Amino acid sequence: MKQSSFLLPTLRDVPADADIASHQLMLRAGMIKQLAAGVYSYLPLAKRVIHKVENIVHEEMSKAGSQQLTMPTLHPAELWQETGRWDKMGGELMRLKDRHNRSFALGPTHEEVITSIIRDFIQSYKQLPLNVYQIQTKFRDERRPRFGLLRGREFIMKDAYSFHSNEESLHEAYEKMYEAYSKTFTRVGLTFRPVIADSGAMGGKDTHEFMALAEVGEDTIAYSDSSDYAANIEMAAVQVKAPNDLPTHREELNKVETKDVKTIEDVSELLNVPASSIIKSLLTNVDGDWVLVLIRGDHELNEIKLKHQLNAKEIRLATNEEVLEVVKTPVGSIGPIGTSLKVVADHAIQYIVNGVCGANEEHKHYTGVHAERDIDVENYGDIRFIKEGEPSPDGKGKIRFAQGIEVGQVFKLGTFYSENMGATVLDENGKSKPIMMGCYGIGVSRTVAAIIEQHHDEKGITWPYEVAPFHIHLLALNMKNQEQADLGEHLYSLLSEKGYEVLFDDRKERAGVKFNDADLVGIPIRIAIGKKASEGIVELKIRHSGESVEVSVSDLVDYLA
Ligand code: ATP
Ligand code: MG
Ligand code: MG
Ligand code: MG
After folding, report:
1. What is the pLDDT of residues 294-346, one digit of tens each?
2. Pfam families given for it (predicted)?
3. Which has the closest alpha carbon to 208: 227, 230, 190?
4. Is the CB of 230 under 6 A from ligand 1?
């Protein structure tokens, strides 16, 4: 590829609205262009990387016995109503109507669609197991699309689904997929950890998330410093239940009706603090007393999900809109929490309060609660705060925390979808049974961003060879010099013939511009043709390590091999 005619719009300056490395670098290296919030075009350089990641995914899926298919993006509402997810998905489901006023969704995932296919075609246990996958654009109207490709509203996912007549078969497929994921993420150059995850409300059991380790990751992982134990903190730490037996003997505690507590103003009235200070406290005074607690959107009042015990300053609430949105949601219950928790918005909900907690009765709360005084926060009912340095659950090693980016997830779904949608098979005895299912996702576009998060330096990206957009960046430093230009052309054809993917910088730009762009774009091997072209000598530099050597043109091919 000749750079003079390649769409590679590099930017010198760091874009103002991008605050993490992968987002900044993808913009600066001319990889992506935003069209709307969380919606991006993948420019040619990004497309090449995506293609490589997809190829690895295809290979590993195929080796694991999964067959590729493609399902529609446009899903009729009726299908999603069969599982109740039309309502349950809430705002995240992108909805639209056709000209006949029929409702549709843009697929955020495909359990419903695949189950509708399988139920029509698979009748006997003899036709199982089956494993199918696709790589496709998904749509999710994320509450906060951000960080470029890490959390988009339109993104590329590989989603696989497996079908079984018994638990053992499901387990086998699960293990196989787990293996395939480990190979995939290793091949794309990620440092990652599979972690035990929370199976949530979907009736599933085993599930692991694959976490690419990165400071900017939105998930917290609790792992053992000397074994393989690792869990998403939301799993490792807690399932909090609102207390049944909060010490109501304390006179300071008042049970109050919170039915009409719906807005930040209501909260302010209930707590007798100015509305403005509620937001302010959340945003700035987080080291103090304010805690956000979330309960699932479907009003499972006892399932407060906490993510972490830590300094309140790490609470992730950044925008007024988000706080307002959270506070505006109808109140169910809030949990008894100490003053320093990190809780992450997941499904919609709750509000925030100092000294208020759920009374385990709908629309009732206690006020005047002092967490430390009134509640054994160390171990209250189902609350358990995991602590850095405590023994890991497997008894091997101590707990450490790290941040991770969820790049994939494997999930034993069980029979939630098949039961709700009537996907059954006849077993050996001619009895009808719901099919057991597993589902397995990889965020392809997110993976590309995660790779950059782990592979960059102050100058730009440092691609791992296997997913690099090109193998060699060939620079002719002065295209006006005929000798250099000719040598450039010669090496470009020679190296391409040898099977390397070469980006030839044949632009009429200054050497400094070319070097900077090369560092930014991060192709693993750089070959610069400069003044020594006349002696048949070029400079070869490894982007990752910065090592450089002078090589004579006649030795170049051997040297590269
Ligand atoms: P998250 O917890 O980050 O919201 P998820 O658990 O909702 O992700 P899954 O339903 O497990 O996501 O989807 C499978 C994979 O798709 C995820 O592991 C992730 O890599 C990717 N993915 C999910 N949401 C997004 C998004 N908004 N943008 C990019 N990739 C995403
Ligand atoms: Mg999500
Ligand atoms: Mg997740
Ligand atoms: Mg997930």
Report:
1. 332 222 222 233 333 222 233 333 233 333 333 322 222 333 322 222 232 22
2. HGTP_anticodon (PF03129), tRNA-synt_2b (PF00587), tRNA_edit (PF04073)
3. 230
4. no
